[in-house]
UniProtKB/TrEMBL annotation:
InterPro entries, per the entry: Cro/C1-type_HTH, Lambda_DNA-bd_dom_sf, MLTR_LBD
UniProt feature coiled coil, ranges: none
Naturally occurring in which organism (per UniProt): Microbacterium testaceum (Aureobacterium testaceum)
Extent of the signal sequence: none
PANTHER family per the UniProt record, alphabetical: BLL4672 PROTEIN, BLL4672 PROTEIN-RELATED
UniProt xrefs under Pfam families: HTH_31, MLTR_LBD
Gene3D superfamilies, sorted: 3.30.450.180, lambda repressor-like DNA-binding domains
Annotated SMART domains: HTH_XRE
This protein's name: XRE family transcriptional regulator
Domain HTH cro/C1-type: 33-81
Any GO molecular function: DNA binding
């Protein structure tokens, strides 16, 4: 690990960013050029002390997960991310096989969406980013680990948790759409990839998945009219709009209710309640 190189690179990228670049309000009094260390640490969900030690070239070798979080927090481009991995003594992530590095342009749009549910997902259905409204409506999946980050895994291995978010009459359609999306990603990435591993595990765990996989249906379906079911607020109708990256490896999903509708009021109430449920009556 090149500790001095990591320290200098992190410091330079931090100082090159402005608070508004990561969705923060820039105050009138800021003595630090660019972002503060604590702001980077918070965006990367790590302690300020840990990040400070990295910038001072006295920290331990960061894990690949830590590096990926720093790359997202500092809005690094793909080449910059690879450079950081090399400085830290790690192999560069496979650009084709993984899509967990959210591109800066998509992050900038995402950071400005705070009044409606929004999330960034990979072409394989992995939740990469969520704002608080999306977490309150859909569950906090960006903070999940392993296969639980993937919609298909949750849908077919934990149907009781995942499917209750949709009306009963729409669940069969959702199942087919999810499998068709996984097959689309599988076709791009191939069997020797995360997609191939996910398909193999789901075929082993879910008879329903095996049956739907044999249909050979292929489709990427993101833009849609959805009815979502919240445990306390009931049904919420939203339109799902999508913004893809150029290579279509990632998508920003924005869920918007009709103006002046009951759904809009429920989304507003979600913002007040956050992910906390109503107290028992």
């Amino acid at each position: 690990m090149n500790r001095t190189g990591v320290a200098e690179f992190l410091r330079a990228r931090r100082e090159a960013l402005r608070p508004e670049d990561i969705g923060l309000v820039s105050g009138a009094r800021r003595r630090t050029a660019g972002l503060r260390r604590e702001e980077v640490a918070q965006a990367a969900t790590m302690s300020t002390d840990y990040y400070t030690r990295l910038e001072q070239a006295r920290g331990p070798q960061p894990s690949t997960q830590m590096l990926a979080a720093l790359a997202r927090a500092l809005r690094l481009g793909i080449d910059e991310r690879d450079y950081l991995f090399r400085l830290a003594g790690h192999a560069v992530p496979d650009r084709l096989g993984r899509a967990d590095h959210v591109v800066p342009a998509l992050q900038r749009v995402f950071a400005r969406l705070d009044d409606t549910p929004a999330l960034v997902i990979s072409h394989l259905g992995e939740t990469l980013l969520q704002n608080p409204l999306a977490a309150a409506l859909l569950g906090d999946h960006a903070g999940a680990r392993g296969w639980d980050r993937f919609e298909a895994w949750r849908w077919f291995t934990r149907p009781g948790d995942e499917r209750r978010k949709y009306p009963a009459h729409d669940r069969e359609r959702q199942s087919r759409a999810i499998v068709a999306g996984v097959r689309a990603a599988y076709g791009v990435l191939g069997p020797a990839s995360t997609a191939g591993e996910l398909v193999a595990e789901l075929q082993r765990r879910s008879e329903e998945f095996r049956s739907l996989w044999e249909r050979q249906e292929v489709a990427q379906r993101f833009a849609d009219h959805k009815v979502l079911v919240h445990p306390e607020l009931g049904e919420i109708e939203v339109d799902c709009q999508v913004l893809f990256t150029e290579d279509r490896a990632q998508a920003l999903l924005v869920l918007t209710p009709q103006p002046r509708s009951a759904a809009e009021e429920k989304i507003r109430l979600l913002g007040v309640l956050g992910s906390q449920r109503f107290a028992s009556r």
